[in-house]
Structures are given as structure tokens and as C-alpha cells.
Design goal:
Helices cover 40% and strands 17% of the residues. It contains 16 helices and 18 strands. A ten-stranded mixed sheet has the order 5-6-4-1-7-8-9-12-11-10, with helices on both faces. Strand 5 (92-95) and strand 6 form a beta hairpin. The longest helix is centred in the first third of the chain and has 22 residues, at 141-162. The radius of gyration is 23 Å and the shape is globular. It binds 6-O-phosphono-alpha-D-glucopyranose. 6-O-phosphono-alpha-D-glucopyranose is lined by residues 36-37, 57-59, 173, 197-198, 346, 409.
């Protein structure tokens, strides 16, 4: 029986008419996205009301416009405490409720299975393995068993949603390395594209995973495996070649294994340009006034912003160390520069995340003790979920945005900041270890591990002329607009169509790696 309580939710994404440049007239009967994180969860508050919460995730930012444009289906884990109360008898609902655009289908897992699959193999194993951040991956046989079970459970849900169609299935990220092979045998008429949002490491590193062969075998059930950068593709091909008895064709960027060919391509993920959040955000001056009022910042203070999940890959502690150094070498900035760091709590039950939190909280306290006073603390740490309206207000209010990832597949915060700055003001300070640095050459690049260098780059950002801000921002805005999420989706869908309709490899020289952005 359908149960649809009314969520108290202001839908910012309500839109009319045609709003995309996605060419979806390419005849897919059904498009199904399989991604662990749901774009919306339902949360019951203390007063018993149910509210919809948007997930803070780069993956959601990139994928949702595509699923909307295709009127597709998103299969995800039901992580909200009231999700079960809001679905039809097949575990799904149309979203956003105010203006339904696509179907969201939840899958629920027993606690022990979720622990092993999500916290264990995916986030204590594959996540640190693929990011070069010196956190030792943990591999447990029981976790891998749960990962297998969960992948099978999600693949079964995709099978149900596919009904008897020949769908295009877009499998997202490291949570579902085994699902492509399962889907291929469950729905032989499907076209399966796997997109790996995080980096792919060197072969030697990847082989630390005791189930590296299983992971590769699972992914090679896809017709296409996509990565963020050409370097990830090379690492993947090297890993396959040195691990499996597969044929690797470097010219065609194709792997043949168990009688099936898989294309390997780079598709740098983008954001929705001029998205509804940008349109709904007041002008920079108003944003600045509101942020200063809310955070009780003194008038005339310079503001930096960082928006991250609280994760050791994001380099938040290193950012705080750079700010400390900045204030040591530029005393004139004491009391005149505030860095607002949003750190959305994430994977809190894992020891590495708790240790990261303890370290960065201690660093922030030290820096604030050293350089703060009653009126102004240099670091404002906001450990909470922030809705897009709050995030975009901070982007518009800030003199600079600091993305300090120690390693990152792409990092869409960098691109969102550029989207938000239609006034062509503000400076993006960007880690060279984020995939986004390959597209945003006009950012101020930093090595986040080099604290002195980072402090100097921050100082440079704070004294950059308006003319230079504007010319750099213009270049970055051109890149982010050109290579937006629809560009990304169109490359994926076109390539999937080519593979599907002709059953052959993509023409050499027409790879997304070579259609690389500016
Ligand atoms: C980041 C990564 C994505 C990943 C997501 C998972 O956004 O860039 O590749 O899928 O984290 O986060 P979650 O909170 O869902 O574990």
C-alpha cells in the first residue's frame, strides 16, 4: 500500500519547461543509476514529522540532472530513518515530491551487511586504497562477503526496476565493483557503464587488496568503465594487465576478458551550470552581510571558505596549519581574516575518521587560541550538514575558496565555487592533487602538504587585484560551463550508444580522454 506522508520540504529544484542540454533522444528504453548514496533521505524529527534531506555529495550533484533529464530510476541505499514510511510497495517513490522528475528506489540492508559492505570493504578498504593519503586500508574477509551480498542485493533491485526492458545501467563508484558482472548475467540485454568517481591507484598499490582479481573481474562485466582522468585510465589498464589473463589493447583503450570487451575512458565529471541554487542565491554583497551577521564577524573582515565532508582525504587539518602559518608570517591579517570551514560529519563510526576529527578540532582550537580574540577567531569550524542554500551563500560571500584535498577524484566544490561567482570575484585556491586541477588551470594551485607554500598562496590570494580575479574567474567559468554535467553525461550516453548499437569499440581518436577539456 503506498504511504506518502507529506514531507516538509522547500523544493529548490522545481523547474519548468526544458532546462537541459542533454540529448536524450537516443532511444534508451530505460536509464537506471545504481549509486549507494540516495539524493534524498527521509528523516523523522522529534515532533514526529517527516522531512526530506538532500545528500551532500559530489556524486549526487553530478548525477541528478542526468536522471531527471532521462526521467530515469535511481537505485540507492535507504539510509534515512523514515525512508521505509514514505515508499510504495516496491520500495520506491517519485522525487522531488513537489515536482516529480524521476523514480527513487531504496534498497535496505541488514545492519551487519551494511557495516561490512559500506563501512568495511568500501570505506575501510577501497577508499584509503585508492587515495594516496597514507591511511592503511583494512581488508577483512567478512567485509568482502558482505560486499558481495550487498552488490547482489542491489543488482537484484536494478533487475526488478528494469522489468523486461533493455536498459542502460549506470553503475556508480567503488561501492559496486562487483555489480556490473552480476548485472550482465542477470539482464543480458542491458548496456552497463561503470563510473569510478575516485582515483585508481598504481597496480602495486591496488594488489594490496586481497580480492583485487574479483574487483577487476566485476568491473570488466561493464561495456564501458569510466574514470575521472586519463591517468586513472592508465593505472587501471596497467593493473588489469598485470593481474588478469586479459588482453589489453592500449591503442583502443580496451580490455577483452572472458569473451567480453570493455572500453576504458576518462570522463571528467562536471556540475550543472547556472543551477537553481545559483539562481536562488542573493548577490555577493547581501550574502556577505548575512554571513557576517550569522557568524558575528567584524565588519571589513576578509573571508575564506572550505566546504568538505569531514574526511582525511580532504586535507582540512593541513588547511588549518596553512592558516596558522599565514597568520604567523602576516601579523597584519590577525583579526582581519576568517576561514569558515564546513565539515559535514561523515563515516563517524570509523576510527580513522574519529582520529581525523580529533586532530583538526585540536588544530583549530590552537590556532584560535594563538590568534583569536573575543571579537574574531581565525577559524570557524562548522561541523554540520549544510543545505545548498547555505553553501552557495558562503561561496558568494567569500574572498577565497580553499580546496585542499590530499588526493581527490575530481572535487566538485571547486567547480561549484566557480559556478557561484557570476560576479567574477573571488579566488580559488586548489590542490594539485584534485582531478579538478587538470581543468581549472586558472586557479591558484597548491601542494597542500607544503604548509609554507600554501600559506604564501593564501597571502597571494588575499592581495590579488580585482582585475586578476576577474580574468582568472572568467577562464575558469568558461571551462566549468563548457564541461558541465550534461557534457559529461552526453559523452557517457553517446559512447554507451556507440558500443550498444554497433557492438564495436569506440573509434580511436574519439575518446573522451582526447576530447579533453581546456
Ligand atoms: C565523495 C566521493 C564519491 C563517493 C562519495 C561517497 O563524494 O567523491 O566518489 O561516492 O564521497 O560518500 P558517502 O557519504 O556516500 O560515503
Amino acid at each position: 500500500m503506498p504511504r506518502q506522508p507529506e514531507p516538509c520540504y522547500q523544493d529548490l529544484r522545481t523547474r519548468e519547461g526544458s532546462r537541459t542540454s542533454l540529448d536524450i533522444s537516443n532511444g534508451w528504453e530505460r536509464v537506471i543509476v545504481l549509486a549507494n548514496r540516495a539524493p534524498f533521505t527521509h528523516e523523522r524529527t522529534r515532533d514526529g514529522r517527516v522531512g526530506l534531506k538532500r545528500s551532500a555529495s559530489g556524486l549526487v550533484t553530478a548525477l541528478e540532472p542526468l536522471v531527471e533529464a532521462c526521467s530515469g530510476i535511481w537505485v540507492a541505499h535507504g539510509a534515512g530513518n523514515a525512508d521505509t514510511a514514505c515508499v510504495d510497495d516496491r520500495g520506491g517513490l517519485e522525487v522531488p515530491p513537489a515536482n516529480p522528475q524521476y523514480r527513487l528506489r531504496y534498497v535496505w540492508l541488514p545492519d551487519h551487511e551494511h557495516r561490512g559492505y559500506y563501512y568495511g570493504f568500501a570505506n575501510e578498504g577501497l577508499w584509503p586504497l585508492c587515495h594516496a593519503v597514507h591511511v592503511q586500508p583494512v581488508f577483512r574477509s567478512t567485509d568482502f562477503r558482505m560486499y558481495q551480498l550487498a552488490n547482489a542485493r542491489f543488482a537484484a533491485a536494478v533487475g526488478e526496476e528494469a522489468a523486461s526492458t533493455s536498459p542502460l545501467i549506470l553503475v556508480q563508484d567503488y561501492h559496486f565493483a562487483l555489480a556490473p558482472r552480476m548485472l550482465r548475467s542477470r539482464i543480458p540485454s542491458s548496456t552497463v557503464v561503470a563510473f569510478w568517481h575516485i582515483p585508481w591507484p598504481y597496480p602495486r598499490v591496488f594488489k594490496v587488496c586481497p580480492w583485487s582479481e574479483d574487483v577487476l573481474d566485476g568491473l570488466l562485466g561493464s561495456d564501458i568503465v569510466g574514470f575521472q582522468t586519463p591517468e586513472d585510465c592508465v593505472n587501471f589498464l596497467d593493473t588489469v594487465e598485470s593481474t588478469l589473463p586479459a588482453h589489453v589493447d592500449r591503442q583502443q583503450s580496451m580490455v577483452t576478458f572472458r569473451g567480453h570487451s570493455t572500453q576504458v575512458r576518462a570522463y571528467p565529471v562536471g556540475v550543472e551550470w547556472a543551477n537553481p541554487f545559483v539562481r536562488a542565491t542573493p548577490a555577493a554583497k547581501a550574502c556577505r552581510a548575512r554571513v557576517c551577521r550569522d557568524l558575528q564577524l567584524p565588519a571589513g573582515v576578509r573571508v575564506g571558505v572550505g566546504i568538505d565532508r569531514l574526511d582525511y582525504t580532504k586535507g582540512i587539518n593541513e588547511k588549518f596549519l596553512a592558516i596558522e602559518r599565514l597568520l604567523e608570517i602576516h601579523p597584519a591579517l590577525r583579526g582581519r581574516f576568517v576561514f569558515v570551514q564546513v565539515a559535514e560529519p561523515s563515516r563517524e563510526c570509523l576510527p580513522a575518521y574519529r582520529a581525523t576529527r580529533a586532530t583538526l578540532v585540536a588544530t583549530a582550537e590552537r590556532v584560535n587560541r594563538r590568534f583569536g580574540n573575543d571579537i574574531c577567531r581565525p577559524i570557524v569550524l562548522r561541523e554540520a550538514h549544510h543545505e545548498p542554500a547555505d553553501v552557495y551563500r558562503l561561496y558568494r560571500a567569500a574572498d577565497l575558496c580553499y580546496v585542499g584535498s590530499l588526493h581527490d577524484g575530481m572535487n566538485l566544490v571547486a567547480k561549484e565555487y566557480v559556478c557561484a561567482r557570476d560576479d567574477e570575484r573571488g579566488v580559488l585556491v586548489l590542490s594539485r592533487f584534485a582531478g579538478a586541477a587538470q581543468q581549472l588551470g586558472a586557479a591558484l594551485e597548491v601542494n597542500p602538504y607544503a604548509i609554507d607554500e600554501s600559506a604564501n598562496v593564501l597571502a597571494r590570494a588575499l592581495c590579488m587585484s580585482e582585475a586578476e580575479q576577474s580574468s582568472r574567474m572568467r577562464l575558469m567559468r568558461h571551462a566549468v560551463e563548457t564541461f558541465d554535467t550534461y557534457w559529461w553525461a552526453n559523452q557517457l550516453l553517446d559512447d554507451a550508444l556507440a558500443v550498444n548499437s554497433e557492438g564495436h569499440t569506440l573509434a580511436h581518436g574519439d575518446t573522451s580522454a582526447e576530447r579533453k577539456s581546456a
